[in-house]
Structures are given as structure tokens and as C-alpha cells.
Design a protein that fits this description.
Elements lengths: L16 H4 L6 H23 L31 E6 L3 H12 L7 E8 L9 E2 L15 H8 L11 E4 L4 E4 L2 H10 L8 H5 L9 H16 L1 H6 L4 H22 L12 H11 L1 H5 L16 H11 L10 H11 L15 H4 L4
Helix pairs in contact: 3-5, 3-10, 7-9, 7-10, 9-12
Length: 356
């Protein structure tokens, strides 16, 4: 349609329904029909993306693999296990931070970097590439194919992180908290090795009770709370989840006002579990998931922000994530939440205030 007086001439006015159909049908009826049709389609897509209960609340799937490195089935050996992780995923990031902080070498645990591409993936969103970093040592094209190869007829979601026993070609675990705990306790066949003795202990016995308690509320209020916000399909579900996120942030701020880390004077598993969520908060969870309200930023909580800077300065943490790629992935891949596909100006470590 040519617009008089407009240089160059043409404007896209969509289907031009409001100008034409409103002559025959009330505008309100057109608007309501369009809104409800879009909402119905959106809810169906959201249910495919993230399982919902009847209240519109996101329900994270449970996992069925509970192996343990060091058990009779999975001996504690170097070079036996392989970890599959994807950069955008906060649950994968947990494992990558544990690898970095524990200084676990590729000779002890192999790592393959997954590529997030739900268009190429036969199920889920993770595929393999052709270079050494993201090529599957078992020769699969995507994570679904890998699950099928080592667990035939598997019916669940093909999720990462994934820890595999390469000698037996069996899945050890795909639950991030269990994988982190195993990476912390494994000696890789050298219990008296000086390197093992010097490694940071993320789960010291004297703090085990407080770590377990802290992990529980960190998960409920923040790790999973942000996803409950982003994947809610009804207002009451979002309101409850957003209130939980605010409660979790306030609780962190209160604790960190009196001590440097969540469980005391040292970095523990609880800090590790919180860190991936906070690194993605300003770029994704607040603006896209509206967690706690789209206006929030970590800097609104001075003690929490100081903790984040402290964690970022630890050896290996900055290298554990490509922050720009992690943030952009949510906007590229979660199309029900960002149907237009526009990617906002990237949130960098400098923008969050992590570097001086």
C-alpha cells in the first residue's frame, strides 16, 4: 500500500484488518478473536516447550539415571568418563564450573561441547559439530541419537549435562547436582595424589547440613524459580513464582551482608549452584522471563553483586561460559517467548560490572 507523502512509498500494514474488517465487524470483536487465538496457540507451544500443571505452573521433569562414580558399577578411574555440556544451559554450567574449580583435566574427564540447534536436532535442542570441541567421540549426530545408542528405547527428555561411562557406554547421570557432587568426590584412581589433595572441596563434611539446606531453597526460589516465571502460562502461576524469586534474592542479600559466601567464609557447592543463575539474570531471567519483575538487576542487591564479582574473579570461572552466546541463545531458541526473534544488545561481563 502506497502512503501519500511518505518518501519511498510503502509501509507494511499487516493484513489491514482493523481498517477494512471493522466496517463490518466491531473492532473489539476482531481484537479479542486475534488475542484469544494467539493465546491458545502460545499456550500449546509453551506446553510443548515446558510441561505445565493445571494452574499454568511449569513442572520440571524428573531424571531416571542415578549412577555414582566410585560404586561397583562405575569405578573411580581416570579417562573412563565423558561429560556432555552446552554453553547456554545453567545446569550444564554447574558441571563446567566444578571442572574448572577442581582443576579436572581432560585426561581425567573428557568433555564435549554441545551446540544448541533445535532445527537440526531430531529431538530436544542439542546437536554435535565436526570439530574436536563439539564432535561426539561415539559418532552420533545429536544428543537424541546418543541417548538412543547407549540407552535403547529411552522415552524421556534428552537433556544435558550428561555423564557417560565410555568403557561400558552407559549413562551415569543426567542430573547436574549429582554430577557436581561426583566431580567433587572422585579421585580418578589416585586418592593420594598431591593434586587431588590440593583441590578445592565444594562439600566439606562440617558444612554438609547447611549446604544441603541452602541448596534446597536456592533451587526452589531461584534456580527453578526463574524458569517457573518464564514458563508460566497463567497469571497466578507467574505471580507465585515471581514472589519466590524476590524472596530468594532478598535472602541471598541478607546472608551475604554478613559473610562472603552463602555458607560461610569459603566457596561451596551452594555458591556454585547459584552462580549460573545470577550470571544469566540481567541478560535473560529478568528481561525475558520477567523473574521478579522485568526491571530487576543484580546490581539492585549490593551484597549479592559483590558476591558475584568475587565468584567471577575465581580462577577458571570466566572461561567456564561464553556469556554473550549464553544470553543470546535464549532469545534465538525460545521462540514462544520471543516470537520476533530480535536479540537485544548483549549483556557483557563489563555491563554487569564483573570486571574493573
Amino acid at each position: 500500500m502506497r502512503i501519500p507523502g511518505f518518501p519511498g512509498g510503502n509501509l507494511d500494514k499487516g493484513f489491514n484488518l482493523l481498517e477494512t474488517a471493522s466496517k463490518f465487524v466491531p473492532q473489539g470483536q476482531i481484537v479479542n478473536t486475534a488475542k484469544e487465538s494467539w493465546k491458545f496457540a502460545w499456550k500449546r507451544m509453551m506446553a510443548e516447550l515446558a510441561p505445565q500443571d493445571k494452574s499454568g505452573s511449569y513442572k520440571r521433569p524428573s531424571y531416571s539415571f542415578d549412577g555414582q562414580i566410585g560404586s561397583k558399577e562405575f569405578p573411580d578411574e581416570a579417562g573412563r568418563y565423558h561429560l556432555y555440556v552446552g554453553n547456554p544451559c545453567p545446569w550444564c554450567h554447574r558441571a563446567r564450573i566444578a571442572i574448572a574449580l577442581r582443576n579436572i583435566s581432560p585426561e581425567e574427564v573428557g568433555i564435549t561441547q554441545l551446540i544448541d540447534d533445535p532445527v537440526k536436532a531430531s529431538r530436544g535442542g542439542w546437536v554435535f559439530g565436526t570439530n574436536k570441541q563439539n564432535k561426539d567421540p561415539l559418532g552420533c549426530n545429536d544428543l537424541r541419537e546418543l541417548y538412543d545408542k547407549i540407552k535403547p528405547n529411552f522415552k524421556g527428555r534428552c537433556t544435558a549435562p550428561l555423564l557417560v561411562d565410555m568403557k561400558q557406554q552407559k549413562i551415569v547421570s543426567n542430573e547436574s547436582s549429582d554430577i557436581v557432587r561426583m566431580l567433587n568426590s572422585a579421585t580418578f584412581g589416585n586418592p593420594n595424589n598431591e593434586q587431588n589433595l590440593d583441590r578445592v572441596d565444594l562439600y566439606p563434611p562440617e558444612l554438609s547440613d547447611v549446604i544441603d539446606e541452602t541448596n534446597q531453597w536456592i533451587y526452589e526460589l531461584l534456580n527453578n524459580g526463574v524458569y517457573r516465571c518464564g514458563f508460566s502460562t497463567q497469571q497466578v502461576a507467574y505471580d507465585a513464582a515471581s514472589a519466590d524469586v524476590l524472596k530468594g534474592l532478598a535472602k541471598c542479600e541478607d546472608i551475604l551482608s554478613t559473610q562472603p559466601y552463602l555458607c560461610g567464609s569459603t566457596f561451596t557447592e551452594s555458591d556454585l549452584f547459584l552462580l549460573p543463575t545470577m550470571l544469566r539474570f540481567d541478560g535473560v531471567y529478568a528481561p525475558l522471563f520477567k523473574a521478579g519483575g522485568a526491571h530487576l538487576r543484580v546490581r539492585d542487591y549490593p551484597y549479592l553483586h559483590a558476591w558475584l564479582v568475587r565468584c567471577w574473579s575465581m580462577q577458571g570461572v570466566p572461561e567456564s561460559i561464553d556469556l554473550r552466546d549464553a544470553n543470546e541463545s535464549y532469545y534465538r531458541q525460545l521462540f514462544p517467548l520471543n516470537a520476533g526473534g530480535l536479540i537485544p544488545t548483549p549483556v557483557t561481563a563489563e555491563a554487569i560490572g564483573l570486571t574493573v
